[in-house]
Design brief:
Elements (H helix, E strand, L loop, with lengths): L10 H22 L19 H6 L15 H14 L3 H22 L15 E2 L24 E9 L12 E3 L2 E3 L11 E2 L4 H7 L8 E14 L3 E2 L2 E2 L3 E12 L11 H18 L6 H16 L12 H31 L5 H16 L1 H4 L10 H6 L3 H25 L3 H20 L4 E2 L3 H8 L8 H21 L5 E2 L1 H5 L15 E5 L2 E7 L9 E6 L2 E7 L9 E7 L6 E9 L2 E5 L3 E3 L5 E2 L5
Parallel strand pairs: 1-2
Antiparallel strand pairs: 2-6, 3-4, 5-9, 6-9, 7-8, 10-11, 12-13, 13-16, 14-15, 14-17, 17-18, 17-19, 19-20
Helix pairs in contact: 4-6, 6-7, 6-9, 7-8, 7-15, 8-15, 9-15, 14-15
């Protein structure tokens, strides 16, 4: 294996650099390929080999070392050679690198000014929202009748939305009258919107902000009836033909000077700086500054983690989470570099190809919330694969592509004589996964960063496909950590459930008694004897918790629920019932409808 040293500006320096490079290459080759004498593979060294299957798995004799032969070699080596001629000493090159990184840091910090606190013309602080923020909180967090979510009306506030909110969906079913909404944006109505709608998605639907973020004003309107549906700006809102105690309208806010979202400027800056580092630098260790720059890009720009609820600035939260996650990520980066990246980039003179394939793949994986957003798999869990349309087909296609890639990588490892050791390594990985699958009480969860860590060793080859694969996997690792942190590979049922269903028992309703009174329509709901493990029954009316009945209060405390509808109320009303245990409401039944004419259509009894 011959590695070409860069020009250094003097004959003596050239000779010494070439000697050092050749000596390092020979040592690296002998160390990595288990050679035990001074003969090279190119000289036709015949290795002792086992007979049978193991002998065939050890690879050809002599070994076929896979080194990229650059296209337009002189052109790709011109810039690093020019840099070596202009700055021949190591301390000069280190100083130049430090200067570039300092300039990048200054420009990066200046671009983050958009995350500082802002106020409208009246001096009121603008509220920073997350894509899933609402005024009416889910899972009964507003209390009976919504007491904990007041005020319902006569107030307004300016807000600022981040980018990329149009594609955010609910990942567990949400009740909207007779519907159970899932895998779509939670926008109910058409300005005004129902109080539990995503504010930022509603603002996009209304045309107040775009998918690159922006500012607006929310005005609370109190009760509103008959929420209509409309498709606008890529979002189809959900209809609701009854009343809800809180509605809001979103409008543009000329009193607020809203800074533009920095992610486009950050992308141009970070791509330019990392491309310069990749093209001008031959040393594999350039991986570390590139890793930090892309990590910062995800953490502050392209896919920043959620910040504190309804705060006035997200920057302190983002700085805190960046510092918390970067340090352990750098520890992983050192291991990745020593075991994988250094082997791939060492001696590589195809600097333009490295930049396009490896660095391009790095950004492709790090920007996965854009580049892979079209794949209909939100989470790699059995629940999502069952519920989300197209998820199984997409997973099957991904597995087919992976099998083809793995087959190609196995062939190249066989050519280099390293197949047996990597088969042993992945045997350990698979054994660990199988052990995790049988541990009781927890479920295996394969996160972004786990996929990267598992597959990266299989890219430690100096081939063009490996450059692309390694870059994408590094990007997935960075995106997974910078956005979601080191989430556990083993998670409990409660962790995986989130705000999803408990799969609990449901109340079995009896036929309600509907009667007319002077005050309106009186409906009495009853249900069968409950399981002994529950404490009471919770009642939702139009997706708002209206009452809880507990069996311990008296003999008939939770045996029935009476609902009085005023004479003037002619809208449909939707009822759901769920058991309460230890102060927490469990799963609710499907919706039963009390129509405006006083007739009842109940959920299926189960």
């Amino acid at each position: 294996m011959v590695l070409v040293a860069q020009g250094t500006g003097s004959a003596e320096h050239d000779d010494r650099a070439e000697f050092d490079a050749d000596e390092e290459a020979q040592l690296l080759q002998r160390e990595e390929l288990d050679f035990e004498d001074n003969d090279s593979a190119e000289a036709g060294f015949k290795r002792p080999r086992a007979s049978g299957v193991l002998g065939r798995l050890k690879g050809p004799d002599p070994l076929d070392i896979q080194i990229i032969s650059p296209f337009f070699t002189k052109a790709q080596e011109f810039l690093p050679a020019w840099l070596d001629r202009c700055f021949p000493e190591r301390r000069q090159q280190v100083s130049l690198l430090g200067g570039v990184l300092i300039l990048w840091l200054i420009a990066f910090i200046m671009s983050l000014s958009a995350q500082l606190p802002i106020a409208d013309n009246s001096g009121r602080a603008v509220t920073n929202l997350d894509c899933v923020d609402t005024l009416w909180r889910p899972k009964n967090e507003c209390g009976i009748g919504g007491i904990d979510c007041h005020p319902f009306s006569n107030t307004s506030f300016p807000f600022k939305c981040p980018a990329k909110c149009a594609s955010v969906k609910v990942l567990n079913p949400r009740a909207v009258g007779p519907l159970d909404v899932n895998y779509r944006s939670l926008v109910v109505g058409n300005n005004p919107y129902r109080g539990d709608s995503f504010i930022c998605a509603s603002a996009i639907h209304a045309g107040v902000v775009g998918d690159n973020g922006g500012c607006g004003r929310v005005t609370l309107l109190g009760r509103h009836d008959n929420y209509t549906s409309r498709e606008s700006h890529g979002i189809e809102s959900i209809p609701f033909d009854s009343y809800f105690p809180m509605a809001f309208a979103v409008t543009s806010d000329p009193d607020t000077k809203c800074p533009s979202d920095p992610r486009n400027a950050l992308l141009y800056l970070d791509v330019s700086v990392t491309a310069l580092l990749s093209i001008f630098t031959a040393a594999p260790a350039i991986f570390f500054p590139i890793f930090i720059i892309i990590f910062a890009h995800v953490a502050f720009g392209s896919d920043p983690p959620s910040a504190s609820y309804h705060n006035t600035t997200v920057l302190p939260d983002h700085i805190s989470m960046f510092a918390k996650r970067l340090l352990p990520a750098l520890f992983c980066a050192v291991i990745i570099y020593r075991t994988t990246v250094r082997r791939t980039l060492h001696g590589l003179t195809a600097h333009v190809e490295k930049t396009v394939l490896w660095l391009g793949g790095f950004f492709l994986g790090a920007l996965s919330n854009y580049t892979f957003d079209w794949i209909p798999i939100q989470r790699l869990t059995a629940h999502d694969l069952e519920q989300q349309a197209g998820a199984k087909v997409a997973l099957a296609a991904i597995l087919v592509v992976l099998v083809a890639i793995i087959a190609g990588q196995i062939y190249y490892f066989w050519l280099e004589g390293r197949l047996l050791r990597y088969l042993a390594l992945y045997g350990l990985f698979i054994s660990g996964i199988l052990v995790c699958l049988v541990i009781p009480g927890v479920s295996l969860r394969i996160h972004h960063y786990i996929i990267g860590l598992l597959l990266l060793p299989g890219t430690s080859l100096q081939t063009r496909p490996s450059l692309v694969y390694q870059g994408i996997l590094l990007g997935l690792f960075v995106n997974g950590i910078a956005r979601w942190d080191f989430d556990s590979v083993l998670q409990t049922t409660a962790d995986l459930r989130g705000d999803g269903k408990f799969d609990s028992a449901l109340p079995k309703l009896l036929e309600p008694i509907v009667s007319s009174t002077a005050q309106g329509l009186m409906t009495t709901f009853r249900w069968e004897t409950p399981p002994t493990a529950v404490d009471g029954v919770s009642v939702l009316v139009n997706d708002v918790e209206k009452a809880r009945r507990f069996y311990s209060d008296d003999a008939d405390g939770a045996a029935s629920f009476e609902w009085q509808r005023p004479v003037e109320e002619q809208l449909n009303e939707y009822f759901r019932f769920g058991y309460v245990r230890e102060g927490r409401a469990l799963d609710y039944t499907a919706s039963g409808t009390l129509f405006g004419n006083g007739t009842w259509s109940g959920p299926e009894r189960g």
